[in-house]
């Protein structure tokens, strides 16, 4: 994937993760909350990969 694709996918995963955390916390669903935490972390990692690709080029 390219730099922009990774950054977009990361933003989406981070937003969905935050939403799952909020819903899980509001409903008392610890599993959904934890799933949201994991997905948000995945999104941050994808954004980081996008930034690295931007700095070094997409061919890494």
Q: Which stretches of 5+ consecutive residues score pLDDT under 50?
A: none
Residues in helix, %: over 70%
Give the overall form.
elongated
State the separation between the terminal residues, measured CA to CA. 10 Å
Number of strands: 0
The secondary-structure class comes to mainly alpha
Give the helix tally.
2
Mean pLDDT: 92
Largest sheet: none
Radius of gyration: 14 Å
What's the order of the H and E elements? HH
Range of strand content: under 5%
Write a structural description.
With 60 residues, this protein is an all-alpha fold. 87% of the residues lie in helices and 0% in strands. The chain contains two helices and no strands. It has helices at 3-27, 30-56. Helix 1 (3-27) runs antiparallel to helix 2. The chain is elongated.
Q: What are the key terms here?
A:
mainly alpha; 60 residues; elongated
Give the arrangement of secondary structure elements.
Layout: H1 3-27, H2 30-56
Short characterization:
By secondary structure, this protein is an all-alpha fold. It is built from 2 helices and no strands.
């Amino acid at each position: 994937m390219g730099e922009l694709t990774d950054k977009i996918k990361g933003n989406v995963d981070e937003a969905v993760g935050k939403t799952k955390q909020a819903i899980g916390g509001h409903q008392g669903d610890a599993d959904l909350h934890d799933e949201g935490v994991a997905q948000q972390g995945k999104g941050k990692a994808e954004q980081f990969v996008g930034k690295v690709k931007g700095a070094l080029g997409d061919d890494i």
